[in-house]
Write a structure and sequence with these properties.
This protein is an alpha+beta fold. The chain contains 6 helices and 15 strands. It has a 5-stranded antiparallel beta sheet, sandwiched between helices. Helix 1 runs antiparallel to helix 2 and helix 3 packs antiparallel against helix 4. Pfam families: Peptidase_M24 (PF00557).
Amino acid sequence: MAERHWDIEYKTPEQIRKMRAAGLLVAATLEKLRDAVAPGVSTADLDAIAEESIRSGGGIPSFLGYHGYPASICTSVNNEIVHAIPSAKAVLREGDVISIDCGAIVDGWHGDSAITVGVGEARRDVLRMAQVAEDAMWAGIAEAARGLRSGRGRLTDISHAIQSSVRKAGRYGIVEGYGGHGIGTQMHQDPFVLNYGRPGKGPLLQAGLCIAIEPMLTLGRSRTVELEDGWTVVTADGSPAVHVEHSIALCEDGVWVLTAADGGRERLGELAAEMARTEPAKQA
């Protein structure tokens, strides 16, 4: 079978710097949302905080109006995996876990990131799963940097690194059919980035490629169901789920994590691109 043709938008260093501005706005917004998560807060409350943060920071919410999506963030609670719509009726309770997905456009360029947060005293096994997803995401990011530097890395090396990290941590469901994506002048671009698979497939990892990496895990099986609202994706077995995400840029000498406040310096070390290692420290 012939290899798929990928319509990839490779970015210049200057364009990547513009994407960093969108990434920082998303990072700052997510930190505000993390602080706001508490029992009694509705997901509509969180959506209002997000929209105000994005617009006051000079951005436009990426999600609002996207294919008809009616909100500025996705707020997926407990067994909801992704794309859950904020609602005044969805009030957070002690012990819940919520995944918040946020996107912003600045000067025509997109940033996209997600966090999972416990509400009060959440279950330890679910919080542990969130940490496993976070570590797997960073394993994928690090693999992207190593593949870039070797000159031989391919897209599914990232997928395999994520899967391997999860499998070493325990028995978790890796959600099938959903994953990361290219990002730039549009929120979703080629290439699609699965969170599992064999290495050595897909396009070469090269400078200018910008992608969002986003593991989604469950405490049960990986099968999913889309609800009647046409957006919300839940676990078929009702088990809790988590979702984390960062947008990254492959530069000539490493990776710049565009939606991390420190650019990825702490987690990546020397695998971080010089543009990440030398930029002034910024607080999200």
